[in-house]
Each structure stands twice: as C-alpha cells, then as structure tokens.
Amino acid sequence: MRAKTWLIAGLATAGVVALALLGAWGGLYNVAASKPHLDVTRWALHQAMRNSVAFHARGIVPPPDLDEPSRVERGVGHYSIGCAPCHGGPDQAQNLVVQHMQPAPPTLDEAADHWSARELFWIVKHGVKYTGMPAWPANNRDDEVWAVVAYLRQMPASPPPAESPSLRMSATPESCNGCHGPAGGGGPHGATPRLAGQNEAYLARTLRDYAQGKRQSGIMAPVAHALSEAEIDRLAAHYAVLTPPPAIAPATSVAAGTRLGERLVRAGAPESRVPACGACHEDGQGRAVDPRYPRLAGQPAPYLTQQLRLWRAGTRGGGFGPVMTAVARKLTDEQIQALADYYESLPR
Amino acid sequence: MTVGGALILLLVLALTAYALLAAPETRGWLGSRRTILWGGIAFPTVTVTALLIYGLLVARGIVTPAVGEDVQRVEVVGEQFWWRVRYLDDDGRVLFETANELHLPVGRTVELALTSADVIHSFWVPALAGKLDMIPGRTNILRLRAERAGVYRGQCTEFCGVQHARMAFHAVALEAEAYDAWLREASGPAVEPATSGLREGRERFLQLGCGACHAVRGTGAAGVLGPDLTRIGSRQSLGAGMMPVTAENLAAWIADSQHLKPGNLMPPFDMLPDGEAQAIARYLESLK
C-alpha cells in the first residue's frame, strides 16, 4: 500500500516536469508580444511588480527639498531624451512602435498619483525586469534619479523647455541647449552648467570621460556615448568660442557667503587643510587657468553646489578627479554654498 | 654615576650569590627586619631621590628656552607624515621654511620648538639627543648640540599613522662657516631656471596649481599645506627620508605618490600626459 502511494506521487511529479519541459523548453509556450497575457496573468504579474516595488522601496528617504526648481529643471531635460521616447510626454505622443511592446510602457502623467516618491525613485533607479524598463545608467548618481522623480511629480504642470519643444538625442548644439540653455548659457534655474565660453580642452575631456565611464551620469553618459570623436571635438570647439551671458549678480542675502567664498578662493582654509581654489581655478584677480581645468566664474550656484557635493562624496570621477576629491573631502556645507555663490557672482 | 650604578649592581649580585650559596645558619641576617628597613627601603629611597633631583636639574637645562644666549632657534612641526622646519630669528619671527631636514651649526646650541599639526609625533635623532614628543597644541623645547660635522638620521618615534615608519629626516651638522653660508642661501628665493626646458617646467608647475599646497619662494606658488619646495633639489631625501632627490624619483612621486607612500596627503597626478610630470620634476630637481 505504502509503495503504491510513492509510485503514484513519483509518476505525478515526473508528469509535471515533463509538461513544464514540453511547454517552456520544448517551445509550446507562446512568447509572442502580439498576444496579450490572460487577464488573470496580467493582474497577477502587475500585483507582484507593485508589491515588489513597495517592498524594496521601504526605507528610501526623499530629499527634503525634492520639488526645488533646479532639481525639476534637471529632470525635465533628461525626461525628454531618456524617458519620453517610450513613455511619451506632455509634448510628445507615445511612439507607435513602443505601443506594441508587451507590456506597453505606461504614460506617466499620472505616475505620481499611483506611486510614492520613494517608489518612483526605486523604479527609475533599478528598472523593472521583463518589462523593458532599464536601470539608471549610473549606479552612484541618486541625485539625478531624484531629479527625474521631482519632474514626474509635477509633469503635467511643467512643459519641457521652450527652446526645443521635442528634444532628440543628436550631435547638434540644439540638442545640448535643450538642457544647457539657449546658446549654452544655462537654464533659468541653474541646474546645468553654462557651456558657453568654457575651456575647449575641458569640454572635450569631459565628454570623453562620460563616454568612457570615467565620469558617472545617467543623463550625460548616454548622450556622450553616442557621440563620435569628431562630434565631441566639434561640440567642444563650438561652445568654447560662444560668449557667456553676464554673471548672475548675487542677492544681498548671499553677500556674506560670497565674502567667505572669496577668502576660500584666494587663501583656502589652511586650518582644515583646504587649499586655495584660485591656485587652479579663477582667483578673481585674472590668473591664467590651465585650459584642462574648468572655468568656474559665472557658473550657476545650484550646479556648483551639486558638483562639490559629488566631489565630497567621492562619486565624481573624471580626469583630475583624485585631485578635486582630495580637496572637496574637507569642505563643509557652508563652505560649499559660499564657494558656489562666489563663483556664480564672478564675471567671466 | 656609571661607577655608582655598577657598584650597586655588583653588590646586589654578590648578595644574591650569598643568599643562594651560604649556609642557612650564616645567611639568616639577610631576612632580618633591620636589613630590610635599611637595605630595602632607606637605601633605594635616598639614591632614587638624589637621582630624581639630579635629573630634574639637567632636564631644566635641556627644556627651558635660553635667554640672552647665542642659540639657533628652529621650530619643527610634525605632520602626517613629514617634518615642517622653520628657522626663527632671535625674536621668534620665521626667517624661512623648509622640510624634512634640519641644518645645525657644530658646537653651537640649537633650540628646537617641537609641536604637531595633527597627531602625536616624536622627534628623535639618536646621535644627537633623546626623543621628545611633539604634541598638538603644545610646544616642547629640546636643546641639542652637534659636536662633529656630519649627516645624522632622525625618525618619528611615536606611532602616528600608516606611514609612521617612513617619517624620517636628516640632521645636517655643518662647521660654523659652512653653516652661515647655508643659512644665507637657504633664506633667499628659489634659483631662476637656467634653460628654456626648466622655465617650461616652472610654467607647468605654476599653471597646474601645485602652488595650492606647495611654496617656491620667489614664484607665485605660496601654498602652506605641503612641504616648501624652494630648495628641494638640494635636500637629502624625497618623501621624508624615503629616497634620493632625483628627477626620476620626483616624476614618479608627482605621478603617483600614493603608490610610493600610501596615505600621504598629496593626490596622484597620473592623468598628466607623458612628459609633463617629467618637466616639472626636472625644474624641481634644479632648485638647489
């Protein structure tokens, strides 16, 4: 009797395995994207995805100033070239080819109603398996991921930049200006660096660093990776000769900060082992800067602050990376803000 | 004092031998209350107290600043992992700064003000004086005198971090005349580069921003974080006693000092194109 029970159980197991092999391995299961899932399958898969996102996103804390304008501005630019091709956007209908994916990427104008900020962050950063949603191309740039989340939260309300209503990734200045402002002069909220008048050697090296993965960015790396060597040189030469817009006059509220910034630029802070910024970059007194170093005068404070924080965290690579990392490691929040305010106010 | 110490040692050895070898009935007095009171308590108390008083008197001469005496004053600051050396005038003003090397006149007292910029280091030139700790926020005075000309090696003797073992320096004792000549040269500006190649090296040095941390007197470079390089080419060693100062070693240090001396404060410049570090190194090597 007992032997018989075992025999039946064994046969049943073998049968299931054989069926599974026949179905999956043998090619009977139809993977066609043209054939939608059964309703029940779709429901189960979607629910599993939602639960997985909710589970893995616990413990993620959004930055307190998530909806800050310069963060949203950075998100807008990337959305147009990185997200809209599949998800569509306020100015861009969803691509017809993409609509035939299985599952088709959802439009995102209501994404913020369905997902919390930390869930959106998790999805943008890690992607979703089996759906075609890719992970963020740089795994140490959470600041960029939050920028996209910030934009998603107010997407219907803020149209992409007027300069280039439907941005496409291309090797033309028009494409770069979509984020970097008209004639490379920077966006209204200072999210991106002003390219106009920047050192040519620095611009070319930066694009190559992005393309080769020496400098990490989910926004810039895909753009730079698509450029040829000749296109990199052409773009660098194009922006280097443009005249930058006049420097942004400091608000009175930051005047005290710029004085601290000026002191750091001229003399550093020897007591905390911070060398003078002006020994390599502009010193506000007309020092000739090595063309391989970036010109900082007139760069927007939000961009400079962001970069100095990345340096300090040790996640900003690129050419002279080890040198700046060694310097920025010792900067306080107050010093970073003061330096950013000072360089923003410095005329080119 | 040596004779006294030797006599006491002999006495103790003799008593030990006596206690071991003598017959039990004759050695009994050794354990008496009287022997223990006089030999075990009174005698050590008197001799050790006398020694302490003598030691304090001698130490006062070593550690108190001299007044109105002909001494060379030098401030030495221990830093991770090198020595900042500042020559002072009679009023305590800084005449000039150098690093990892202490020049001193033979037969004349040198008064060192020792302190630290970060953690506790310890200053020791075994051939010249005992060790003395360099303590952050405190200045310890050490007076020493070299009796013979020569180069003496010094070493940090208080564990101060990953490169403690490679925190060495050289003390160079010079005869009075040679010392005065050295002092005159060392307090002046750096030599002008003699060739176009060396001028190019200086140009690269200044434009790259080396002056953010290093000083070369007479050029725009006035950094205070790292060693002064005004006469680096004439120094005994590179990297605080690590290797001789040659253009090759300097170039290797610029390109990746973290490989040579991991944990020092200088970032690597391995991104410089071929020839640039070498040009800077040749310029630095020419600074004699």
Automatic annotation (TrEMBL), chain A:
Keyword ATP-binding appears in the UniProt entry: no
Superkingdom of origin: Bacteria
Domain Cytochrome c stretches: 70-156, 159-243, 256-347
Keyword field contains Repressor: no
Molecular functions per Gene Ontology: electron transfer activity; heme binding; metal ion binding
UniProt xrefs under InterPro entries: Cyt_c-like_dom, Cyt_c-like_dom_sf, Cytochrome_c_Oxidase_Subunit
Keywords annotated in UniProt: Electron transport, Heme, Iron, Metal-binding, Transport
Name the UniProt record assigns to this protein: Cytochrome c domain-containing protein
Species in which this protein is naturally found: Oceanibaculum pacificum
